[in-house]
Design goal:
CATH topology of the largest domain: Aldehyde Dehydrogenase, Chain A, domain 1
Keywords: Oxidoreductase
Oligomer: single chain
Helix content: 25-40%
Organism: Arthrobacter hankyongi
Number of strands: 20
Pfam families: Aldedh
Strand content: 15-25%
Radius of gyration: 23 Å
Bound molecules: nicotinamide-adenine-dinucleotide
Family: Belongs to the aldehyde dehydrogenase family.
Structural class: alpha/beta
Protein name: Aldehyde dehydrogenase family protein
CATH superfamily of the largest domain: Aldehyde Dehydrogenase, Chain A, domain 1
Length: 473
């Protein structure tokens, strides 16, 4: 098939959307025009929600087996279109084809669809004592709204959509205004295997997302994005008492214990921090290293960082790309400049090449930085990792837990039992040992504190897009 880079949304048809216009989308690596993205209005959204509401009972009535078969066929279709999808994603988002980037993201979309299709969720008998019999069933919610970010646009859409569809909901997707073409192309491929109107995409601005969050016919919002927007969605959804899954911002800490082997962990640390050029919610964003091995860890990590090629995504050699947009580039550049001004030591990077086109910021490691510096305490969301020295494990845990977000965390050690003792004291939704940010479609994922609430993936992810119902008697 061929993937268009203009308005490509089959589900627009029943809604007969007359969109407001279109917007040019540029490649963040080159500045080249990629295509025109439709800009939909709040009225278009209302129409798409109505379409989803009307077709939902028939979709639910198909049953789990038929819906799962559709999801499996959608996974096959994604695999057939994988290279075209990956190339579009690379050009729009910026991430390279190779490494844990565009081809990996498209492949994971198929894997998550298949996992959502294969995960069993049967009614449970909760009491059966001869007098009372109570069963717990999981019913569809109705229409689910899915609002996504620009960093992993295709995969996060699938995370929100796959479980929702499997459970008999219909879905209206609002992609990020930065990466609409990738999401529209993906939805187009999936829609080839679904009944008309079951999955709808409405690209538009914040006002479209805000309407989705307050819309009376939407029963649940799956939101992935910043904590600030998550709070706005809580407020907009209050009047209709919507169910919410909120996957929000993070500022993940990694703690390297004194017995870790700096050489052995260097590559894992690097990818934990720099996957998708640091633009990943559950990336390692603050690294705490014991003073005994601080210099050795800095040295090993610097060697790995210097060897990783950054450049235009379509070049097969690159594994790191540009920042996706100018605003994100400016955030990273200003934070690193402030760190330099404060006297922190830059081990590598720290000076973007002003003559280079695109939003490239070099891979940057910053040592000897205060724990309360904004590069440490804020979410930099880019290729700049601060490395903080500590002397006692209690001190490292206190620093890791000091922030009001808690998406992921990691502990690095040659002794897994010692690492586990530290892990259970960390306030984060997931704590990895000797890795960071690895997700798996069967392992629940979600945040603690202001990183959000609700779980995605596995059976917990299916339950989250259902209404529990007790049949008593
Ligand atoms: P963002 O919050 O700016 O935007 C996300 C989406 O929300 C966009 O589609 C946007 O149009 C929409 N939106 C904006 N205002 C809205 C409103 N008032 N009501 C409804 N929708 C609205 O986030 P972003 O910059 O696109 O993404 C980066 C952030 O996402 C980072 O903080 C990152 O940590 C977070 N993130 C979290 C996870 C996770 O799983 N926890 C995953 C990826 C990204």
């Amino acid at each position: 098939m061929s993937i268009s880079t203009s308005a490509t949304n089959r589900a627009d048809a029943p809604a007969a959307a007359a969109f407001e216009g279109s917007r040019p989308i540029y490649d963040p690596a080159t500045g080249d025009l990629i295509g025109e993205a439709p800009v939909h209005t709040v009225e278009d959204l209302d129409q798409a929600v109505e379409t989803a509401r009307v077709v939902q009972p028939a979709w639910a009535a198909l049953g789990h087996a038929a819906r799962s078969a559709c999801l499996n066929r959608a996974a096959d279709a994604i695999e057939r279109s994988a290279e075209e999808l990956a190339r579009l994603l690379s050009r729009e988002q910026g991430k390279p084809l190779n490494g844990p980037n565009a081809r990996f993201e498209v492949g994971a979309c198929a894997a998550w669809l298949r996992a959502a299709a294969a995960t069993p969720l049967e009614p449970e008998t909760v009491v059966d004592d001869g007098e009372t019999r109570a069963e717990l069933h999981y019913r569809p919610i109705g229409v689910v709204g899915a609002i996504g970010p620009w960093n992993w646009p295709m995969l996060i859409t699938v995370w929100q959509v796959a479980a929702s569809l499997r459970m008999g909901n219909t879905v209206v997707v609002k992609p990020s205004e930065y990466t609409p073409l990738s999401v529209l192309a993906l939805v187009d491929v999936i829609n080839g295997e679904l009944p008309e109107g079951v999955l709808n995409a409405v690209p538009g601005g914040r006002e479209v997302g805000a309407r989705l969050a307050e819309h009376p016919a939407i029963g649940k919002v799956m939101f992935t994005g910043s904590t600030a927007t998550g709070k706005a969605i809580i407020r907009s959804s209050a009047d209709t008492v919507k169910r919410l899954t909120l996957e929000l911002g993070g500022n993940d800490a990694g703690i390297v214990l004194p017995d870790a082997d700096p050489q052995a962990i260097a590559e894992g640390l690097f990818w934990g921090a720099f996957i998708n050029t640091g633009q990943t919610c559950a990336a390692l964003k603050r690294l705490y290293v014991h003073s005994d091995i601080y210099d050795a860890v800095c040295e090993s990590l610097t060697a790995v960082a210097k060897a990783m090629p950054m450049g235009v995504g379509l070049d097969e050699n690159n594994v790191l790309g540009p920042l996706q947009n100018k605003a994100q580039f400016d955030i990273v550049a200003n934070l690193v400049q402030a760190a330099k001004d404060s006297g922190a030591r830059v081990l590598t990077g720290g000076s973007p090449d002003a003559g280079q086109p695109g939003y490239f910021y070099p891979t940057t490691l910053v040592a000897d930085i205060d724990n309360d510096h904004p590069l440490v305490a804020g979410e930099q969301f880019g290729p700049a990792l601060p490395i903080i020295r500590y002397s006692t494990v209690d001190e490292a845990i206190a620093m890791a837990n000091a922030l009001d977000v808690g998406l992921g965390a990691s502990v690095w050690s040659s002794d897994p039992a010692a690492a586990r003792e530290v892990a259970v004291r960390l306030e984060a939704g997931t704590v990895w040992i000797n890795s960071h940010g690895m997700v798996n479609p069967m392992i629940p994922f979600g945040g603690a504190k202001q990183s959000g609430y609700g779980l995605e993936f596995g059976v917990e992810g299916l339950k989250a897009v259902s209404v529990p119902q007790i049949i008593n008697g």
